Amino acid sequence: MIEELIARGADVNANAPRTTPLFMAALNGDVTVLEQLAEAGADAVNDEQAFAIAVRFGHRPFVEELLERGAEITGLVMARAVRSTRMDMIDLLIEHDGSLCQRCEDGSTMLFYIPCDKVRRPLWERIIDAGVDVNAVNNTGETALIYQAACLPELVEFLLDRGADPTMKNAAGETALDWAVSEEVRELLHRAMEEPDAGDDEP
After folding, report:
1. I want to staple 50 with a disulfide (CB 3.0 to 4.6 A). Which of 26, 99, 103, 152 is the partner?
2. Helix (H), strand (E), coil (C) string for 82-111
3. Do 115 and 24 sit in the same domain of this protein?
4. Are residues 91 and 71 in the same domain?
5. What are the C-alpha distances in Å from 131 to residues 91, 101, 112, 156, 187?
6. What residues make up the domain containing 82?
7. pLDDT at residue 13 above 70?
8. Rounded to whole angstroms, how far apart are CA atoms 31 and 20?
9. According to the model, what pLDDT value does residue 46 have?
């Protein structure tokens, strides 16, 4: 079917909102279709969305083929691996010069994408240990603590323990406390903000 469509002149780079033929092949992890599309001129190097969806669903042979062809490991691609907690994908991307310290286009770090589930704590620790700045802000001034304040208390407590500053404000003047939902998280943040060195940048 793919070969017939290509033979009839189908546009292999057609983009029907954010969905290219390569994206659909990535969604299914179909390496054969990837090869057919690439041979017909599909941009297998720069289709970030296709790369990201293949990573998200753990289609390793497809991801390996994209890497072999020179696809760039962007922040979005790494974020999909983190969000889906696919450690094998994270390891593969790092082996090919990806980094947990990468940022997405909106400035968010990988700490913005870590899942709330406390059984994923080893991933939380791995990202921090990779050198990600726990107080880094995205383009609208949110920190990971602000962004994750609506999450589980265990994650909020982890970020605080690793140096997250509860007094930092986003562009709208909001702190993590303004984003918190549960009373347990609000209590954690209240206590952290009352500590003598809260908001103090001095060592």
Report:
1. 26
2. HHCCCHHHHHHHHHCCCCCCCCCCCCCCHH
3. no
4. yes
5. 16, 7, 14, 18, 28
6. 1-99
7. no
8. 15
9. 92
- 41-55 burial, b for 16+ CB within 10 Å, e for fewer? ebebeebbbbbbbbb
Asked if 66 and 23 sit in the same domain, the reply is yes
Beta bridge partners of residue 19, listed in sequence order:
16
Domain of 185: which CATH number?
1.25.40.20
Closest CA to 109 of 154, 72, 143: 143
Q: Which of residues 83, 99, 115 is at a domain's end?
A: 99
Give the contacts of 199 (CB within 8 A, at least 6 positions apart): 165, 166, 167, 168, 193
> End of a domain among 67, 99, 131?
99
- Whole-angstrom CA distances from 57 to 18, 19, 29, 62, 173 are 17, 16, 8, 10, 37
Q: Write down the pTM of the prediction.
A: 0.85
What's the start-to-end Cα distance of the chain, in Å?
Answer: 64
Give the DSSP per-residue string, 115-155. -S-GGGHHHHHHHHHTT--TT---TTS--HHHHTTTS-HHH
Of the listed ranges 18-27, 29-38, 184-193, the least confidently predicted one is 18-27
pLDDT in tens, 98-123: 999 999 999 999 999 998 888 889 99
Nearest CA-CA partner of 31 in 73, 6, 66, 55 = 66
Confidence of residue 159 (pLDDT cuts 50, 70, 90): very high
Mean pLDDT over 58-72 rounds to 97
